[in-house]
Amino acid sequence: MALTFEIGDPSAPKGHAIAYFRSGAEILATYVLILPISMDMGKYLPPLLASQLGGMAGDIMGEGMGSFAAPPVPEQVESLDYLERLARVRGDDLVAGGSLASGDVAAAMSEAAEVVQEYARLYDTHTKLATSAPSGETLASELREPTPLTAGESDGGGRVEHVLYELMTERDKLGELSKLVGTMRFATERNDTGLAEETDESIAALERVLPERYWAAKVRAAAKDVSYNGAMLAQLYVERCYKLLGDDFAAVQLLEKRIGDFL
User: Fold this and answer.
1) Of 237, 241, 208, nearest to 225 (Cα)?
2) In this model, does residue 70 exceed pLDDT 60?
C-alpha cells in the first residue's frame, strides 16, 4: 500500500498520524501510533485470562505491540478540513489511505491495519537512516562536486534541490513525490499561489531525475487539479509508482484500469 502524506514527510514520519479514508461522500478516520518502546500486552493480562487465550493473546493484542490504529475500524468524521486543522494543531502527520467499501467492517479493519503496517515501515526506515545518516559535513562534501545544469534549470536553490534528489534512492524520490503531491493539493485548494509555484518547481525537479515509467509528469498535472477526479488520479498515480518500484505488475495493470475510469 502507498500512503499519500497530505501533511508531513513520508521520508521522516513523526510516529503519530491521522489516517483517513473516503467512503462515497463520507470521510472516515483513525489514529495511527508507533510506540517508541514496544510492549508485550500479554504481561498485563490476568493470568487466568492469559492461559485461556493462549496464543490468541498475541494475535489480539499484538506480539510485542509497537504500532496500532485506534479505533481499529475508522470512524466517520465531519470533514477533511477538520482533520487538516486537527493535524496541524496537534503536530500529527495526515495520510490518505484510499477508499473503503461502505458497511464492510472486516474490510475497513483490514485496510486500517495495512495503513499501520506501511506507516510503521516508513517510520522504521526513517529511524534506521537517521541513526546511520552521514553528518552534515559529509553531505556538504558530496554536494561540492557540481553537476551540469539541464535546460531551463536555474542555478541556485533549484539546482541544489536537483542535486539532492539525484543523491536519493528511488524509493526516497517516490516518498518525496508523495509528500509534494499532498503539499500541492493543500496549496491549490487554498489558492496559495506562492506555495503552489514552489511545490511545482520541486515536482519538476523530481520529474527530471525519475525514470519516465513513473509518469511523474502525469502525477504533477493531477496534483494541480483541484477536482475530485484530480484527487483520485493523484492518489492512483502515486500508488502505481510504488507498485512499479516493487515490480508488482499485476497491481500496476489494475491501477491503470482504475486510472482510466477518472480520465
Assistant:
1) 237
2) yes
